[in-house]
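Quick one, probably user error.
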């Protein structure tokens, strides 16, 4: 295997890794948005979070 082949293989592996990382980041971003939407839809959860924040602030 020549040097050119080695570089080509490494470039292809790096490209595949980049695609995988991009897909993972995209999935994480979508999950984060989904959780944020759930929090916005449920006012009791927001109120609980606000109360916890105020309690920790008072301490």
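Nope, works fine. Designed sequence:
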């Amino acid at each position: 295997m020549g040097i050119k082949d080695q570089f080509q293989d490494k470039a292809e592996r790096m490209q595949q890794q980049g695609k995988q990382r991009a897909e993972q980041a995209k999935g994480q971003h979508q999950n984060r948005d989904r959780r944020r939407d759930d929090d916005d839809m449920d006012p009791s959860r927001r109120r609980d979070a606000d109360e916890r924040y105020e309690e920790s602030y008072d301490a």
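The two ends are 66 Å apart (CA to CA).
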